[in-house]
Amino acid sequence: MLKIKDLHASVEGKSILKGINLEVNAGEVHAIMGPNGSGKSTLASVIAGKEEYEVDKGQILLDNQDIDELGPDERAHKGVFMSFQYPVEIPGVSVTNFMKAAINETRKAKGLEDMPANEMLKKIREKSELLEIDRKFLSRSLNEGFSGGEKKRNEIFQMAMLEPKLAILDETDSGLDIDALRIVANGVNKLRSKDNAVIVITHYQRLLEYIVPDFVHVLHNGRIVKSGSKELALELEAKGYDWIKEKANA
Amino acid sequence: MTGLKKKQMPKTETMDLKEKLVSSFMVFEDSVDVDSPVHEIRSEAIKTFEEKGFPSKKEEAWKYTSLNSILKYDYSVFPKHERAIEYSEIKKYFIHDIDSYKIVFIDGKYSSHLSHTTHDGIDVCLMSAALTKPKYRLVIENYFNKVAPSDSLTSLNTAFSNEGAYIHIPKGKVVEKPIQIIHFATGAENALLLQPRNLVVVDENSHVQIIERHQSLTENPVLTNSVTEIFANKRAIVDYYKIQNDKENASLIDNTYIKQKQQSVAKVHTFAFGGKMIRNNLNFYQNGERIDSILKGVTVIGNKQHVDHNTLVMHKEPNCESHQDYKGIFGDNATGVFNGKIIVEKKAQKTNAFQANNNILLNDKASINTKPQLEIFADDVKCSHGCTIGQIDESALFYLRSRGIPKKEAKALLMYAFSNTVLDSVKIPELKARITKLIAKKLGVNIGFNL
Question: Where are the domains of chain B?
Answer without folding.
Answer: 2-442
